[in-house]
Write a structure and sequence with these properties.
The protein is 5% helix and 35% strand. The chain has 143 residues and is mainly beta. The protein has a domain of 94 residues: Deoxyuridine triphosphatase (dUTPase) (Deoxyuridine 5'-Triphosphate Nucleotidohydrolase, Chain A, Distorted Sandwich). The strands form 4 sheets. A 4-stranded antiparallel sheet has the order 2-11-6-8, with no helix packed on it. The model has no long low-confidence stretch (mean pLDDT 94).
């Protein structure tokens, strides 16, 4: 798939290995950015993309930053819609116990492009039966 991209940096999103699902996104900073414990920051990437209709770009946390430093995404997973043309900025949060410093070109998140379906709702009086029924929140797990 070919996706149009503009960038203010030399760095483009890139797969780190042949089997990677996500491309690493890098910070575009004029000076280091510190995120204090419990605080959030919106980190610029200098990238803007034009996705084809029917596709989204998911922004995901980097597992290494999460495990080693407690760095995650404020909203869990971010979505970039196909009609958004602005700069991709990453909403990071520091759940760790120490300041976290981000430098220019540091890998801060991953981007995964996914196809999606647009749905239409059909209002009905009842739904078909299933083995699970309305059991939820651990209903199918071990007791």
């Amino acid at each position: 798939m070919l996706i149009k991209i503009t960038t203010l940096s030399e760095e483009l999103p890139a797969y780190e290995t042949e089997g990677s699902a996500g491309m690493d996104l890098r910070a575009l900073l004029e000076e280091p950015l510190t995120i204090k414990p419990g605080k959030r920051a919106l980190v610029p990437t200098g990238l803007a993309i034009e996705l084809p209709r029917g596709f989204e770009a998911q922004i995901r946390a980097r597992s290494g930053l999460a495990v080693k430093h407690g760095i995650g995404l404020v909203n869990g997973i971010g979505t970039i819609d196909s009609d958004y043309r602005g700069e991709i900025k990453i909403a990071l949060i520091n759940w760790g116990e120490e300041d976290f410093i981000i430098n220019d070109k540091d890998r801060i998140a991953q981007l995964v492009v996914s196809k999606y379906e647009t749905v239409a709702w059909q209002k009905v009086e009842s739904l078909s039966e299933s083995d699970r029924g309305n059991g939820g929140f651990g209903h199918t797990g071990k007791e």
